[in-house]
Design goal:
heterodimer; A: about 375 residues; alpha+beta; Butyryl-Coa Dehydrogenase, subunit A, domain 1; Butyryl-CoA Dehydrogenase, subunit A, domain 2; Butyryl-CoA Dehydrogenase, subunit A, domain 3; 3 domains; 4-stranded mixed β-sheet; 10 strands; about 15% strand; globular; B: about 400 residues; 4-stranded antiparallel β-sheet; binds flavin-adenine dinucleotide
């Protein structure tokens, strides 16, 4: 398949760029941070995104979605990386929808997906239990009781955990902490008795939460997919998540790079534009080249997701590993090449640096994905 | 060298007896370091006491002449004092731009009266000095600075703006680069003057950093009166002093990571957070990255030591301070990137008791300034390329 966007995808990309830069620029995130907004995102902006159909990009037409695919959603995520817009887009429209599409029963899909499309339901996957991604290391317990279950345990650094309506929780009904077998996914109301949510304000000013489950009673229907076999689903789900995070990090890197290049073309020292120094030209040109490499991995991975290719596992790890490295380079260079002003909060560059690291660590940093890539490749 | 052995023995005993236990812990927070000055609030009686007993011996500035309040130690003795302090992990009793920058410049270039007026106050931590070098349009190109200083007969009047002035809002005095001859070529018309930050016409506006803190300021100078005896060295010959001072600043910034490496090692952090698998760190990529960092860090420590030893022996190349500043700050930045990787999302939490109110993220972000302050990495590389390697000459 040609590694280019088709006409519709390009239009979506342009529309996303126009909308986000006009309605949800970095200034919005700054304002949410400075006002210590309790929600952590603008409901009005999210409603506009819903109106644009973004909540349904990955939802099949049967459930009222646009079924526009991962390449399409990836374009929105990439533009989102330029504006650092805080919204339920990733947790709900990428992860929540994908979990339901992957593992939900027809009844669950029919009940929940249309609500997501309509902007009436928000989800948050609650998978990791520590500060490092470890999808199948699950200690949270799910035990049968009566004709339902009871849930006990703790999840850490759950994106949108304090604002979502329902949590998609991985829990163990059999086996040891790191066994692949014995894990299930369940849907849990955030406000259910026994669920304690503690918001954690992260460096990137985006939503995260610690969540405890104390004897939370769940009906049998809370189960998402077959019991005991969720590890493979979680892996697939985080591959999707990582492909989209890589797209976000691509947009973030592009924006940091472009703003830096613009600065090199305005700031004068020693009577000349600093961009006239070859040492700095090479740094900018190197960054540009690295971003080009990332771009290819991102589009290939998104296309592989849409094609259902067997290569997705390997590609998602390559894309996320490269994205983590490139975004680190881009944001470090951006600060350094701005000089003193790069260290100030007044400039937006700091927001990019902070978001780059948080997004990298979500579902595995570059080292995690290098190791995973090597393991998948059999060495 | 029986004298040195005896000096070591006595120093060891004295430090054991006089260094409070709380001052033998690694510096974590900004306030753990004592900066001194009239506005300083000691974080503990121990911090105050440690400063006082060390200052009484002049050991806050061990190698400065005793007649002005310094310790009067020779190079070997100074090194022994450092080693003995490191041995018990004693904190540096006073950390200031007075000690690392303006003090050495005054000793070398200042009048007798200026030395009498300022040196003892620096040794005893009574005055907090800030550095008025950078201006909005003249950072790397420092010699282009435009702050005007006019001769008004019995005094000077200074007008202009400084920026990125670290701690200007807490400082008592500023050492400030000003232009005293606007007609002369760039480097030739600059002088170094000193003034009290309470002088009418001096105002500061804090600037917030990406780390959330506000340790630096814009400083506005409007018709600021500066007494003539506060000119350091010769009029219009300030550039030589400025660069002498920068050399000291660079050595200080280059070694900034070293005070924290006596703290818990990266591999201890990693073993604790990530654990071992078959005797090796469970994250094999991180393991290599940490080992590579430790290699470079050890090499850096040894290089700093070698260069000091070479200087003592009267050898060595010039521009070593640029090389140390460049390598030291890059290593320190890498250390904090690795700490964030080791602690994962925890290190990126920004608020909350459970995360030391974002201490790890704050420190990580602050290190990004290390390769900018005191002259950027690029400027250090330019200096190495030109002065040491002789590149770019026609
Ligand atoms: C945390 C912090 C504390 C500071 N504290 C003080 C202080 O107390 N007092 C004070 O006076 N100043 C202070 N500074 C200012 C600091 O000295 C300047 O920021 C620094 O010298 C760079 O100047 P600038 O910010 O104007 O950047 P610029 O000079 O505009 O540099 C922008 C970019 O261009 C690059 N560049 C510029 N010229 C060249 C060249 N010829 N070749 C290649 N690359 C080049 C730089 O390396 C940088 O990457 C502080 C800065 C920071 C970050």
């Amino acid at each position: 398949m040609a590694l280019v966007l088709n006409e519709e995808q390009r239009m979506l990309k342009d529309a996303a760029r126009d909308f986000l830069s006009e309605h949800a620029p970095v200034a919005q995130l700054r304002q949410l941070r400075d006002s210590r907004d309790a929600q952590g995102y603008s409901r009005a902006t999210w409603q506009q995104m819903v109106d644009l159909g973004w909540s349904g990009i990955l939802v099949p037409e049967a459930q009222g979605g646009l079924d526009f695919g991962h390449v399409g959603m990836g374009q929105i995520m990439e533009q989102n990386g330029r504006t650092l817009t805080a919204s339920p887009l990733f947790a709900t429209a990428v992860m929540g929808v994908s979990a339901l599409v992957q593992a939900g029963s027809l009844a669950q899909r029919n009940a929940l997906l249309p609500a997501i499309v309509a902007g009436e339901l928000q989800l948050a996957p609650a998978l990791d239990e520590g500060p490092h991604h470890a999808p199948c290391r699950v200690r949270t317990r799910l035990e049968a009781r009566g004709d339902g279950f009871v849930l006990n345990g703790e999840k850490q650094f759950v994106s949108d955990g304090h604002s979502a309506d329902q949590l998609i929780v991985s829990a163990r009904s059999a086996g040891a902490d790191a066994d692949r077998d014995g894990i299930s996914l369940v849907l849990v109301e955030r406000t259910a008795p026994g669920v304690t949510v503690e918001r954690v304000v992260m460096a990137d000013s985006r939503n995260s939460a610690m969540i405890r489950f104390d004897n939370v009673a769940l009906p049998r229907a809370a189960l998402l997919g077959e019991p005991g076999t969720a590890c493979a689903v979680i892996e697939r789900l985080t591959e999707i998540g990582n492909a989209h995070l890589a797209a976000e990090l691509l947009g973030l890197s592009l924006e940091a790079c472009e703003q830096t290049v613009a600065y090199l073309n305005t700031r004068k020292q020693f009577g000349v534009l600093i961009g006239s120094y070859q040492g700095l030209q090479h740094r900018a040109a190197h960054l540009f080249s690295e971003i080009e490499l990332l771009k290819s991995l991102v589009i290939k991975t998104l296309q592989a997701l849409d094609a259902g290719s067997a290569e997705v596992a390997v590609l998602a790890s390559l894309a996320k590993a490269k994205a983590g490295e490139v975004a680190t380079l881009a944001t470090n260079e951006a600060v350094q090449l701005h000089g003193g002003v790069g260290m100030t909060d007044e400039l937006d560059i700091g927001f990019f640096m902070k978001r780059a690291r948080v997004a990298e660590h979500l579902y595995g940093d570059h080292r995690y994905h290098l190791r995973r890539f090597a393991a998948l490749s059999g060495y | 060298m029986p004298d040195l052995e005896q000096f070591r023995r006595e120093t060891r005993i004295w430090l054991e007896a006089n260094c409070p236990l709380s001052q033998r812990e690694s510096v974590v927070e900004f306030e753990d370091r004592c900066w001194g000055g009239t506005k300083w609030k000691f974080t503990s009686d121990d911090q105050k006491r440690w400063l006082e007993v060390m200052a009484a011996r002049g050991w806050t500035a061990p190698d400065w002449p005793a007649e002005y309040g310094g310790g009067g130690l020779n190079k070997e003795e100074t090194k022994i004092l450092r080693e003995e302090m490191n041995r018990i992990n004693a904190r540096v009793p006073l950390f200031s731009m007075g000690l690392s920058m303006i003090g050495p410049a005054l000793l070398k270039y200042g009048s007798e009266a200026l030395k009498r007026q300022h040196i003892r106050n620096i040794v005893e931590g009574r005055i907090w000095w800030c550095q008025g070098y950078s201006e909005p349009n003249f950072g790397s190109d420092l010699a282009g600075l435009q702050t005007r200083c006019e001769d008004k007969g019995d005094h000077f009047i200074v007008n202009g703006q400084k920026v990125w002035t670290s701690y200007a809002d807490r400082a008592d005095w500023m050492f400030c680069l000003v232009r005293t001859d606007p007609a002369a070529v760039k480097h030739a018309g600059i002088s170094l003057v000193l003034f009290d930050m309470n002088t009418p016409g001096v105002t500061t506006r804090p600037i917030r950093l990406i780390s959330g803190k506000s340790p630096f300021c814009e400083t506005f100078l409007d018709d600021v009166r500066v007494e003539k005896d506060q000119l350091v060295g010769t009029l219009n010959k300030g550039w030589e002093l400025a660069t002498y001072l920068l050399t000291h600043e660079r050595e200080m910034i280059g070694s900034i990571g070293q005070s924290s490496t006596s703290a818990k090692s990266l591999h201890d952090h990693a073993v604790e957070q990530i654990g071992l698998a078959g005797g090796a760190l469970a994250d094999s990529v991180l393991r290599t990255d940490i080992a590579r960092w430790e290699m470079d860090n050890r090499a850096f420590e040894l290089t700093a030591e070698r260069i000091t030893d070479e200087a003592t022996a009267g050898q060595g190349v010039g521009a070593a301070s640029s090389m140390l500043k460049y390598t030291g700050t890059e290593i320190n930045k890498r250390r904090h990137e690795l700490l964030v990787s080791i602690h994962g999302q925890r290190a990126l939490a920004w608020e909350g008791d459970a995360y030391d109110h974002g201490l790890m993220a704050t420190q990580w972000l602050r290190t990004k300034g290390n390769s900018i302050e005191g002259g950027t990495s690029e400027i250090q590389l330019n200096i190495i390329a030109k002065r040491i390697l002789g590149l770019g000459k026609e």
